[in-house]
Amino acid sequence: MTTVPAAPPAAAQMQGKQRPGDRWFSGTALFAGIMILVTLAAVAIFLIVQSLPAFVATPETASLLSTNFWDYVWPLVFGTVWAAALALLMAVPLSLGVALFISHYAPRRLAQALGYVVDLLAAVPSVVFGLWGIGVLAPAVQPVYSWFVDNLSWIPFFAGPVSSTGRTIFTAAMVLAVMVVPIITAICREIFLQTPTLHEEAALALGATRWEMIRMAVLPFGRSGIVSAAMLGLGRALGETMAVAMVLSVSGGITFALFTSGNPSTIAANIALRFPEAYGLNVNVLIATGLILFIVTFAVNAVARYIVNRRKEFSGAN
């Protein structure tokens, strides 16, 4: 009676023999991942250690402070979040429209040309956007601001007095929106192009118009990607420095008025403007504001990751 040899375990069959190239690649990838965590931890430790003296600083030891650190940083946090939120409010609808036009409406040649233009806009230095905001955008929108203040000043957002230069928080938000539109558009475009063709054809076969097909198949499929793109753009807007520092006319304080000359500053712009002349505990105060910005950005990315993970099992069919 002939005996059949037993088959090797499934784990041994799947493991196989590792080539030297595979070991080098896996080791390099592991090292790169570890270095990301080490770098993030090193930045966090540096910010925390350098920020500790600022938390107990007084106006006598740090000239930047009028009372204490928290009274100093709170208007900066408000200005940072307020400007980034306004920018995102303008940028997301525009980015979605451009991405949908490129992926589902434009002819192939026009779509390729627009894709190249969007990618090139993402590479423009922020100082160029700042110069454009000062020299072109601010003078152009100042008459519009005056009209809003003259006719709709009963709305708190449009309260006066209007800025005579146009260098307001809303102008800075528009510059930020133009800067983050290419990032959000590029990501959304690639996500929309990955929508399963069968889902699109099934919607069209059932009698849906192109917009109905996009609303029922494309947008639900790319919802988590849209959130990721928006949060990535928000992270760029939160940390933008030079464009905001050049465009925004800062007077401090907290206000929701969009068109006045009294505007809150942002953390990044405040650090860029004050750090060259800072000394002593003032340096620690500015580093401490950078720690607050680090925490805010980390929290934004954590929330985005949570939203994306909640819908990672979505396949577009449900």
From TrEMBL:
Matching entries from CDD domains are given as: TM_PBP2
The signal peptide here is: none
Query: Chief location of this protein?
Result: membrane
UniProt KW Membrane keyword: yes
Q: Could you confirm whether the keyword Flavoprotein appears in this record?
A: no
For this UniProt entry, which segments traverse the membrane? 24-52, 72-102, 114-138, 169-193, 241-259, 279-304
Membrane-related topology note = Multi-pass membrane protein
InterPro entries of this UniProt entry?
A: MetI-like (IPR000515), MetI-like_sf (IPR035906), Phosphate_PstC (IPR011864), Phosphate_Transport_Permease (IPR051124)
UniProt-recorded name of the protein: Phosphate transport system permease protein
Task: Report the source organism.
Answer: Microbacterium terricola
